[in-house]
Amino acid sequence: MIDTPEHEQILRENEDILYGNGGPTDRVTADKVLAQMRQSRTLCVGLVYSGNGVLGLGGGSTFGAYQQAWLQHYWNTYSCEIMFHELGHVMGYSHSSSFTYGPWAQQLMNNFYVTHLKDFPIDSPRYLESSSNATLYR
Fold first, then answer.
1. Residues 114, 84: contact at Cβ < 8 Å?
2. How does pLDDT run across 100-111, given as a tens digit for each residue?
3. Which residue among 14, 33, 39, 113 is least crowded, i.e. fewest CB within 10 A of its CB?
4. Pairwise CA distance, residues 71 & 27, whole Å
5. How far is the C-alpha of 33 from the C-alpha of 30, rounded, in Å?
6. 27 class by beta-carbon count within 10 Å (0-12 exposed, 13-18 middle, 19+ buried)
């Protein structure tokens, strides 16, 4: 996704609504976002128990989400929003930025991903067949 011309275009066209931890006056360029998304990193990926009202956990090398987000992010923009919210934390952004509770996670990336999924190399939940895993929470 991050290497498609369409992804770069949507970031450039919406650069005016990208802002960092300092709030709306802390402008972030499309080039910076692309570099952050393309940065090589090691992640500890996991499943977050949602029984306490927590739907995700992200920051540093931690990237986790509740079960439904892992299962539904392919077509459900809310689940996908959670994934991008946590990715925003992994990229170093706080809740004051557009990368968590702002337009990057809530408008741009989730809708872009769900709309363009058919164009990506791995374009379906069938690859992992996660929804049929015997260890899912019931």
1. no
2. 999 999 999 999
3. 39
4. 33
5. 5
6. middle
Helices (H) and strands (E) in the chain, counts: 6, 3
How distant, in Å, are the alpha carbons of 10, 39, 70, 83, 127 from that of 33? 12, 10, 23, 16, 28
| pTM reported for the whole predicted model | 0.91
DSSP string, 68-98: HHHHHTTT-HHHHHHHHHHHHHHTT--TTST
Which residues, listed in sequence order, are joined to residue 46 by a DSSP beta bridge?
A: 64
- Nearest-10 crossing angle of helices 30-38, 5-13: 140
CA distances from 52 to 65, 66, 109, 138 (A): 13, 11, 26, 16
Q: Please report, in angstroms and rounded to a whole number, the separation of the first and last CA atoms in the chain.
A: 32
pLDDT digits (tens, 9 = 90+) for 16-65: 999 999 999 999 999 999 999 999 999 999 999 888 889 999 999 999 99
Length of the chain: 138
Could you tell me the two tokens for 130? 């996660």
